[in-house]
Design brief:
Chain lengths: 125, 391, 391, 125
């Protein structure tokens, strides 16, 4: 079902946790649906210097959370914003069709965090 | 060797070596078609009739009341659609429960689109049906009541005998899906008062792809599988001879071991439940505390997600099951847990461990060692922690 | 040792030892439920998906176009009822032939009682359908044409490709029951132009109780077996894993041996037919003289009764089949022979001998020694003698 | 399916043939139905002294024919007439349900032959 890459990220997720006093916070999903994610970022010169996640959810939700933080870390905000659900799935060597919604959550979480940063700092993309 | 602790016996069971052995001759040597008239055909016919006698006797039925099917799903489809279509003139009302297996729910759902009315009986927080509700719900148009003998997810055993008394009195057919009980606790069609009863071999150490439907003599039924005149014109298709022989062998062994094995498993089950409740916070036991299958443990590990628990257990060599949305192939968590009034956010955290022939106390101890840190890790990874799980 | 010459391969075949061997691990070790998410479940899933690839490739289909069923009967029921109910809005007309297997005829018969119209195409004296009749019979209300690939009694191979061209042009679904051809002569869904195709493992040295329905992508279908979400929601029920693995293994071997085996059997078949015609008077060959299955011999031994011939052959160690009323479980002789215009009194004398992997020239010689005196004896016992058989 | 007794009578049927210049002849069934039987009897002092049959039909048809001749041989006409389908089936250790019509044929054949004898000889039962 899951690729080796998904299982690796599930087994050993990168960037789990919360940044203290983050520059941006993204929260998506809700426990009723079974999936919930909170991403915190620290931004320096329009670059995502640090990023952490906390996720309640299935294997794919955790793996995509982990992957999105890995992809986004060190990226310019402009590019990070463009990370799509397909990018995340591809980076994980694919996801089962019924699991594609989990990778949406991860992409949305990141975008929300960036939006939160922008709204606090008045910068527009 | 890697650890392999199988705790999903409710999903399927390994075929017993004795069962495989009994089946073997029917593949290569005794391969005749039971419908054929020559010696090999007659021998095959004789063998399946003996198997039928065995299965029938084990549930207190007559041999001719047993129809072999391709499994529990076919037996359920056959029962529900067979009764509905054959008794359309009498009425179009079917009563069932919201906690049935999909093999009952889906045929009912289908019939609704074809003009039938389906009433779903309420269940309490343990998944228990109240016989009084059956009595109250039956109308002049009711043709069938279908209530499972025990639920496959939470293990609750339903009060079938009481329901059977009511349906008999009212002259309404009663079907029960006994796929989870047959071979594990006593099943007797007369004590239960049922007219139709579904069973499946792969839940009692028999092969997959073979099952049976008990049909009480005189029941007005329409065939489901149509074609040749096998099974007295009630189920067409060349007999799965090896499967039938294996099924009967599994039944024979189950009968011998049922009492002692049920006792052994119930002790292990209670030990496992106690251990989980002691070692993990915010746990909810699902299903009836005492009227439950001897091998079923089902808990909500609030604040962790079921599939993530399952995968984590798998990494430790433990096979389990969950009612989370992610494991059901839909967006909703288990329909059984929801029907019992468990909120979706808690239902997503359900874990089912079902014990069986190979399960030992050491296995349970291992689970009790491994499960708490898994839950702790997942809760720590959650943005909610465990806070919201607390009242 | 007693003689045992099996000449009823069209009824069922022995499972090949290699097939049994391939199945074995899936009973006791690799017993996981393919729907389960943990390692054992995923391994079982992987195995059945490989099996699906194999079966699909062997008929030129995509893997996702294959749905595993409990056999040919289920595949036929699924195809006929699935198309009929899902396309009711388009029309209620089904075209088939009077020589189909009961697994097609009975579902059609049933649908007629539920408001469908069934047209039976005529067949000629060899049991052959004329594609022009298909073209002529299709109306705006036709939703399905079902014509078998080869007939199981007389072995006649139908002109499916020609029929396929017509149904495609007219935009009508085409189903074929390829239970008798698959594994024995080439079957390609695109060459045949079919949208649905039924196959069954036990006719090609695989196990009983497993088969498949090919469903062309985009076909509007309703499921037949309802319940769990197996087979992409198209066929519920726990997978018969060992059966599926055995089926694929049988397909693998059949693919390798088909060409040479078909040639070998066709020679033996012709030798047997010639021998019977030479040694027995008043014999009629049933089925097409050349467009027939390589392993099928079907004759009317006028003036003797089929079951009596069958029993007499059985006493000599030979397994055979007959289309006499006494073997069909009804009062009428074979519907296939009657549809071909053979008078009932002659149809009662039919004998089918179908050859297979274990058949040798010595076996045929033995049959040719044994059969003539049997026929002679039965004719001598008849009040009519052979007189009435003569023109 | 068939009892050993049926198979024995099928394998080795008693009284096959035709009596020359018989006192009574019974013919029942027709080839369209697949079953046909001809019974000939010789009668002496109201007793069936000899009886023979010819039958076209299935195993049960042949076995019941054989059995009916065995039962009737040496019997008084009055008793022979009473041989029922059940008597024949019982004597053969039973017949499969769908085969019971074959034993009707045998009983009918005998009764016809006796009737034929009576009509020729003016005796009534
Ligand atoms: C309660 C219940 N009913 C029906 C079924 C379906 O039986 P089968 O898997 O033999 O189709 C199952 C198991 O899958 C079950 O647990
Ligand atoms: C032409 C044909 N169709 C369908 C079937 C039924 O297949 P199964 O025996 O697998 O149910 C058979 C054989 O019995 C057959 O010969």
């Amino acid at each position: 079902m899951y690729s080796e890459k998904v299982m690796e990220h599930f087994r050993d997720p990168r960037n789990v946790g919360e940044i203290e006093n983050p520059d941006g916070v993204g929260e998506v999903g809700n426990p009723t649906c079974g999936d919930m994610m909170r991403i915190t970022i620290r931004v320096r010169d329009d670059v995502i210097e640090d990023i952490k996640f906390k996720t309640l959810g299935c294997g794919a939700a955790i793996a995509t959370s982990s992957m999105v933080t890995e992809l986004a870390k060190g990226m310019r905000l402009k590019e990070a914003e463009k990370i799509s659900r397909k990018d995340i799935a591809d980076a994980l060597d694919g996801l089962p069709p019924q699991k594609m919604h989990c990778s949406v959550l991860a992409a949305d979480g990141l975008r929300e965090a960036i939006g939160d940063y922008r709204s606090k700092n008045g910068s527009e993309s | 060797m890697e650890k392999f602790i199988y705790l999903d016996y409710a999903a399927t069971t390994p075929v017993r070596p004795e069962v495989v052995e009994a089946m073997m001759p029917y593949f290569t040597e005794k391969f005749g078609n039971p419908s054929s008239l020559y010696t090999e055909g007659r021998n095959a016919r004789g063998a399946i009739e003996e198997a039928r006698d065995r299965v029938a006797a084990s549930i207190g039925a007559e041999s001719r009341e047993i129809v072999f099917t391709s499994g529990g799903t076919e037996a359920d489809n056959f029962a529900i659609k067979g009764i509905a279509y054959a008794n359309e003139k009498k009425g179009n009302h079917i009563i069932t429960t919201p906690i049935e297996h999909h093999a009952v729910l889906e045929p009912c759902h289908y019939l609704r689109k074809r003009g039938f009315e389906i009433t779903y009986l309420p269940v309490d927080e343990h998944g228990m049906v109240d016989p009084a509700d059956v009595e109250r719900t039956i109308t002049g148009k009711t043709v069938l009541v279908s209530v499972m003998h025990a639920n496959n997810e939470v293990g609750t055993i339903e009060p079938l005998s009481e329901i059977g008394k009511i349906t008999r009195e009212k002259g309404v057919y009663l079907h029960t899906d006994a796929v989870q009980t047959f071979g594990h606790i006593p099943v007797d069609v007369n004590e239960l008062g049922v007219d139709l009863l579904s069973i499946s071999a792969h839940k009692l150490y028999g092969p997959k792809g073979i099952g049976a439907l008990y049909i009480r003599r005189g029941t007005r039924m329409e065939p489901f599988m149509q074609g040749g005149s096998q099974e007295n014109n009630r189920r067409a298709g060349t007999h799965n001879v090896a499967g039938i022989i294996g099924f009967a062998k599994a039944v024979e062994i189950a009968e011998k071991e049922m009492v002692s094995e049920a006792k052994r498993l119930a002790e292990l089950r209670d030990y496992l439940i106690r251990g989980i409740l002691e070692r993990i916070e915010d746990v909810r036991l699902n299903g009836h505390p005492t009227k439950r299958l001897p091998n079923n443990v089902n808990v909500c590990l609030v604040g962790a997600e079921g599939e993530a628990i399952l995968l984590s257990l798998d990494m430790e060599g433990i096979s389990s099951s969950s009612g989370s949305a992610c494991t059901s192939g839909t967006l909703d968590p288990s329909h059984v847990l929801l029907a019992m009034g468990i909120p979706a956010e808690i239902a997503h955290s359900s874990l089912r461990l079902t014990l069986g022939s190979r399960t030992t106390k050491e296995d349970i101890d291992y689970v009790l060692d491994v499960l708490p840190p898994i839950v702790k890790r997942l809760r720590a990874m959650s943005p909610l922690g465990t806070a919201w799980g607390r009242k």
